[in-house]
């Protein structure tokens, strides 16, 4: 995936650029010609400066996502039935998937290979992927996770967590798993991967689990990952979990689980960088998207942040949060741009979760163009989330939360506009709200403690600690807002500028 910016001058600007080279009234006399030359040179300099300061990358990049592997054609292709798989929903096909991967690995240095899964119900336990692979599911293909725990091997805990997320010790391996891979594509023609998580949810509720539940898809320490054009159902735990990965794209997927299913997060990038999540519909029992980076002392020690993350054109509902950061954020989270989001029938719209003992930081977060409908709390910060891996965490390891901007957000039938709770003695700073309108149904509309920031054009009126205006004195304190102010000023100056 590449993150890049494009600058295309507007039509009036292009006309003005042309006009500087065709200034009327220049005669051939030396004095008049030199004066014209000076005017033209000055105009060129000013126009170029205008382009630079009004370009999207002047402060907040006009970000876009491109995956180099998207639509890649592999020179070698096989079908899962060639390895003895039976798509009757009863026959266990774990060996067939494992054998297919073993065979296709021989093509890794020859352009890679594609494993085609045709229509059918393909029951399997956990299996590993390989590098330079496309796993392709046809329209009516369904990969089914086994309901027997012995078909899901137990593996070591993640080093940034120090133990299983739910229980001490190891964790069950995800249904589709891979580590130390390059160039992996999981895609298809809207085929389905169904974790049949109801068995795991029941064991969780009854507290009969031996280890932490498995994810549906987990890729570790991998680069160049694309997951697209698929339906994911009923994950036992978090659905899509890239961890310690770079260049990850999740595009055009549907993720579904019952709203009362426990901890069935949609997409959880964890200590990852250069991530793009776009054009997805997600309805689950926990966070639609949760950005993480390790847990307490283990995350601090591992020290790998989640950074450079784009989330856009996302729709979802949940009994938790639409977009969450944390609570496991001990390695740090920064450079998150989320826009064009719609969440409905949910508990929280946007939430940041942390706690004393987490350490780490959350900064440079920009959330814009969000629509919320029937949401209990629109914007929520939780500074005392608790929940630690063991007794060895450092209670004095305080998180740094700063430079978080919310812009252009509307909400209907919102119970609480903002429940924003920082940490005493460690105030969350430079929290900025701009052009936000909520229809709120109960009091208090905003509830803030240990929060410092700015607001403008917000209805209903924010709490006192956020009441100072952004413009003109504090736009540089608000992540992404200095460019907005500059561009607004440029637009108002353009008629004057080019009449010079």
Automatic annotation (TrEMBL):
It comes from the Eukaryota. GO terms for biological process: carbohydrate metabolic process. Gene3D superfamilies: Single-stranded right-handed beta-helix, Pectin lyase-like. InterPro entries: GH28_Enzymes, Glyco_hydro_28, PbH1, Pectin_lyas_fold, Pectin_lyase_fold/virulence. SUPFAM superfamilies: Pectin lyase-like. The chain crosses the membrane at residues 40-59. Keywords: Glycosidase, Hydrolase, Membrane, Transmembrane, Transmembrane helix. GO terms for molecular function: polygalacturonase activity. SMART domains: PbH1 (SM00710). The keyword Hydrolase applies. Belongs to the glycosyl hydrolase 28 family. This is Polygalacturonase. It comes from Trapa incisa. The lineage of its organism: Eukaryota, Viridiplantae, Streptophyta, Embryophyta, Tracheophyta.
